[in-house]
Amino acid sequence: MTVPGVTFVGAGPGSPGLMTVRGLRALAEAHVVVYDAELSEALLDAVPPDAERIAVSGVAEGGVPPHAVPALLVERARAGRSVVRLIRGDGGDAGREAALVAQAEFPVDVVPGVSLGPAAAVRAGLPLTPSTRLVVVADGDLHAAARRLRGEGAAADAWAAAIEAPGRADQRTVTARLDRIADEAARHGLASPEILVVGEGPDRRHPWRERQPLHGRRILVTRPRAQAGRFAALLEAYGAEVAVLPTVRLEPPGDWRPLDDAIARLGEFGWIVFTSANGVTAFQERLRRAGRDARALAGLGVAAIGPETADTLRRTGIAPDVVPEEFRAEGLLESLAPQVGAGQAVLLVRAAEAREVLPRALRARGVPVVVAPAYRTVTAKEEADQVLGLLEGGRVDAVTFTSSSTVRGLVALLPPDEARRLLSGVVLAAIGPITAATVVEYGLAVSVMPREYTVPALAAAIARHFTGRDSAARR
Questions:
Q1: Are 311 and 281 in contact (CB under 8 A)?
Q2: What is the DSSP letter of 213?
Q3: DSSP state of 51
């Protein structure tokens, strides 16, 4: 149960993996989230889908200016809502806003975030010692920061490190003597360094993160937000900066009756087949609404199209009997057909719009098939501006597709006939041959496709692709 009031949460450096557990819990329970516009959208993955999201920015269209934030927080709290104010850094900047909310006699809590300085130093491979100094660089002016340190007694030949985008996946670090660090950072193109580290650390640096295969790469994940978290985490583990911008979203099918009717007469089927994890989730919800549980599937054979779908089934207490070696309809058909006994009917739980390969082939073999749509995919039009902005700005190294619908959704979000221009030079990665074929239909080329059609295999294939290309460039 959530309590009306305002919780100020330090988002840390802005990387989802560096959020505190308590901060994530506050986001998961919020009715309203007011966040700094420059924060990564991935930080909002924990926010309930029906929560109100409000960006704070003096320039962004539709954003709320900073001076209006305290009144906004009070207004939402007065309406009996649980409000989270998400702030970059450790949350120390919450003071003025928190005081104004407290004056209005609403409950206030502050959840500290990971501090930028230590996070940046550790990610840069800089050991922190008692003599290490961490300095926040005001307005990116390294010359002024270095002069101030020298005026305070730091030696000109002391080792220093300048860090840009601290704590984020695209963090960059340059080391040099303190009296040369500003010029060296400029020479390496650090546009706005935020942290200056001085002391023993920089001369014993181990840049482990910068050696990760996807360090400095921005990868666009297009699958629905509810399913994107695991994929994003895998890519981040390889060092990537991940932008989760779904090109499609899931909605209920136009009519629940086919699925509800099938659930009411599950005993008439010999097999139930799931072609996606989304189908499993929707089926379980309708099963629960009907007052039934996994025991209703006793005596039925259960088939899953791939390991992700199978894992989702297992988490609900259902062990699939068939999981094909090739994770697509053709592979499922090959594994399932010999198992279906004479006279057994098959219930196929799937998306409203899907390939007809499986039901058509089963019917051709004399197997009765009932198709029950459990969800439908629609274009996520609300993401259009962000997707276009990233691609127009040349800020994407790779785009990932985990289904044909994500491909069609991306093309639909772009201006007509602009997909080829906007995606020129961008690595396109498809989870399998069906998805890859959809990419090709739009005149685009697929650069990455794993041998195994799974999300972990796709993430690994992307890492191998960039490692190979970088190695070739260095030779």
A1: no
A2: T
A3: S
167, two tokens: 């704590």
The residues with which 84 forms a beta bridge, in sequence order, are 7, 33
* C-alpha radius of gyration, the chain, whole number: 26
CA distances from 453 to 29, 450, 459 (A): 35, 6, 11
Q: Which two tokens stand for residue 350?
A: 């799937």
At 316, the amino acid letter reads T
Measured distance CA(331)–CA(325) in Å, rounded: 7
Question: What is the tens place of the pLDDT at every residue in 378-401?
Answer: 998 888 888 888 898 888 999 999
In 3-state terms the chain splits into helix, strand, coil percentages (rounded to 5) of: 40, 20, 35
Distance, CA of 231 to CA of 213 (rounded, Å): 16
Instruction: Provide CB contacts within 8 A for 303, sequence distance 6+.
Output: 271, 272, 273, 274, 320, 321, 322, 323, 332, 335, 336, 339
CB atoms within 10 A of CB 148: 14
Cβ neighbours around 141 below 10 Å, total: 14
425, exposed or middle or buried, with CB in 10 Å at 0-12, 13-18, 19+? Answer: exposed
CATH numbers and ranges of domains, the chain: 5-114 (3.40.1010.10), 117-206 (3.30.950.10), 218-247+380-474 (3.40.50.10090), 251-378 (3.40.50.10090)
pLDDT tens readout for residues 3-49: 789 999 999 887 777 889 999 999 999 999 999 877 876 788 788 87
* Angle formed by the axes of helices 404-413 and 433-441, nearest 10°: 30
Averaged pLDDT for residues 113-118: 89
Q: Measured between alpha carbons, how far is residue 326 from residues 25, 319, 359 in Å?
A: 38, 19, 17
Cβ atoms of 197 and 175 closer than 8 Å: no
Angle, helices 384-392 vs 404-413, to 10°: value is 80
Of the candidates 299, 296, 369, the one whose C-alpha atom is nearest the C-alpha of residue 332 is 369
Pairing of strands 159-164, 369-379: unpaired
pTM: 0.71
